[in-house]
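Dear colleagues,

As part of the handover before I leave the project, I'm documenting each prediction I ran so the next person doesn't have to rerun anything. This entry is a single chain, and its sequence is reproduced below.
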Amino acid sequence: MVRKTTITLMILTPLFVHLGCGLQTSAIEPGSDNVKPDKRVNRDPAEPATQPSALQTSQPAGRPSPASGWPNWLGPNYDGISHENDWSSDWPEAGLPIAWSRQDIGIGFSSVSIANGRLFTMGHVDGKEYVYCLHHNTGKTIWSHSYDCRLVDNLHEGGPGATPTIDGRLVYTLGREGQLFCFNASNGKIVWEKMMQDDLNVELAEWGFTCSPYILDNQLIVQGGRVVAYEKLTGKKLWETEPHNAGYGSAISFSRQGKTLLATLDCDGLRILNSGDGSQIAFEPWSSPFFTNSTTPIVVDDTIFISTGYQVGCGLFRLSDEKLRDGQLEEVYVNREMRNHFNNSILLDGYLYGFDGNSNLGRVVQLTCMKYDTGEVAWKKSGFGCGSLMIADGKLLILSDDGTLVLARATPDQYEELAQSPFLEGRCWTIPVLLNGHIYGRNATGQLACVKLPQKSQPR
């Protein structure tokens, strides 16, 4: 099984964190005059829905039909895939045109969530964390909420890194120190809030709370020292697990034999839970030398894939009846070909695409294509640093760690680049989001930008 490996290299923190303490809600946030909208962009707040198609991963159980937009971490189906196909891969040589850009979001790694014309993200400014609600097509502030919070900048810039979760008229955020909020998405009014350290009786982990909130039916599920479920409308605690070493990724749900289960990866291992009461179904030990497990499990049928950096690697496990009777999982394979430090691999047509290697060794990190069910590597490509990616219309949308956008075919045959464009500056570890013909992205120090994709030529 997985063995601990002695590492003497510098460690850099996982990158999924959120919110803080204290509270202040307003319609203005730091540096709002720095927004640079493109006058050509349509300012209608209504937003067309993305086009759904067959999922590559198992459909998360207990989820409503995918909403319009990109409402949460990894998108409406929690798979990092967009099915928009009315944009062109013929990008201008000078780069994609900027729709809008602002430099004042604050330090952090929180990605963006977008629904009903509103974009949500987070950042840290001068001892406070901010939750932002912005017009998706101008970057202008609709409302913001701030609270006192430590930066928690252990070996990286710090700041929030969990992604807001939109559920209808509500939006949920989790702060770096464990501040869990439920907001009215339209005006920023607080519906309910919790302080996770106190509510769960857990200490702040080394890199804080970084789990993006997960909606399952009437439950809001988070992990950080325990896995816990709250009633999403009231904040009433429904159940919690026994304490464990906190992980930094998010939960995912799936169905098996008529039951809805949860999978989470914490810094002790892979945990399979009954979503009704939080009871443990199975556990697979999966330790990290620096307690840095920070990815979200990928579930396909009766198999679960997990991955970790620092020479630990990846593993595929099966939920077999025989093993489950003893509370265990069946190992399919374990290897070191896909060592995701903090950004998830994305699965398409039976192949995983992700970054193998650690952020502190960006020069040797490689974008890797690996067969899901066997662990066999199809190809590797260096040159992006420890970047991130999503998949759109069967193509890899890659953001290198220095801020360059790259478009390549999502195929196991070979790496084939189609286009690239300047996008951001500085350190970029946060996954980009493509929605409604635009790409949204941020850097670590507070730049948030939106570029417009060319449209496909219409047949005459």
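The longest strand covers residues 118-125. Residues 24-66+77-452 form a domain with the Methylamine Dehydrogenase; Chain H fold (CATH 2.130.10.10).

All the best with the project,
I.
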